[in-house]
Write a structure and sequence with these properties.
It is a single chain. By secondary structure, this protein is α/β, with parallel strands linked by helices. It folds into 2 domains: 137 residues, TIM Barrel (Alpha-Beta Barrel); 77 residues, PK beta-barrel domain-like (M1 Pyruvate Kinase, Domain 3), CATH 2.40.33. β8 and β9 form a beta hairpin. It is globular. It starts with 6 loop residues before the first strand and ends with a strand.
Length: 238
């Protein structure tokens, strides 16, 4: 019996119920709905297709993946920038840097020597000089980054809420739409999962929780995080 489960993210490329049926036939066990993109009209359509096909093909779980306290780049010149490995760039606050960051809290925690992941980790920088609100960085792993993509400091924590206003709205929408799982991004502590558990239990205690482990900070309380979660997902950034 196959023990490994396959999670598929449903996005714009999945255009029809027939395509959803094809994913199920090819082994999809869990459908992931990314709350960082799209609207709930589109997500409800995916859920409708899954529920229509699932009884005849295989039981499929549906997971709403919350955006969480993800810090993002600001508006980039031309909407996107492609970096070669070994190139130099600037990152920080304001219009004078090539990579503006939308979170002052994140920039305040930056230090020379930090590793910075952009997007979903496909581009990596190392801060080589600077302080305050402006840093110079070397591109360790090149690639293309786009406006509003995520920014992660590897191994660095900073004080922001675990759940945003957007997350709270997405939780209600996900439960109302019939999602089986809700995943929290950038979990840092057991308190983050406890807050999510309290909110979800008031709405529907049968919904299961997924803790996404993406920071070293989470490892300090990993046992308590596990006890408050139904599923642990190890993601990039650690």
């Amino acid at each position: 019996m196959r023990q490994t489960k396959i999670v598929c993210t449903l996005g714009p490329a999945v255009e029809s119920q027939k395509m959803v049926a094809g994913l199920i036939k090819e082994g999809m066990n869990l459908a992931r709905l990314n709350c960082s993109h799209g609207d709930w009209d589109g997500k409800r359509k995916f859920i409708e297709w899954i529920k229509a096909e699932s009884p005849d093909l295989a039981p499929i779980g549906i997971m709403a993946d919350l955006q969480g306290p993800k810090t993002r780049l600001g508006v980039l010149a031309g909407g996107a920038i492609t970096f070669d490995t070994g190139a130099s760039t600037t990152i920080g606050l304001g219009e004078e840097v090539e990579l503006p960051v939308g979170s002052p809290e994140l920039v305040a925690s930056m230090r020379k020597g930090d590793r910075i992941l952009l997007g979903d980790g496909q581009v990596e920088l190392k801060l080589v000089s600077g302080e305050g609100t402006r840093f110079t960085a070397k591109v360790v792993a090149g690639g293309t980054v786009k406006t509003k993509q995520g920014v992660t400091i590897v191994g660095r924590s900073f004080d922001i809420p675990a759940l945003t206003t957007k997350d709270l709205g997405d939780i209600s929408q996900a439960i109302e739409a019939g999602c089986d799982y809700i995943a929290l991004s950038y979990v840092r502590s057991a308190a983050d999962m406890r807050e999510l558990r309290d909110i979800v239990d008031r709405l529907d205690p049968s919904v299961k929780l997924v803790a996404k482990i993406e920071t070293r900070e989470a490892l300090k309380e990993i046992d308590a995080i596990i006890s408050l979660s139904d599923v642990i997902m190890v993601a990039r950034g650690i």
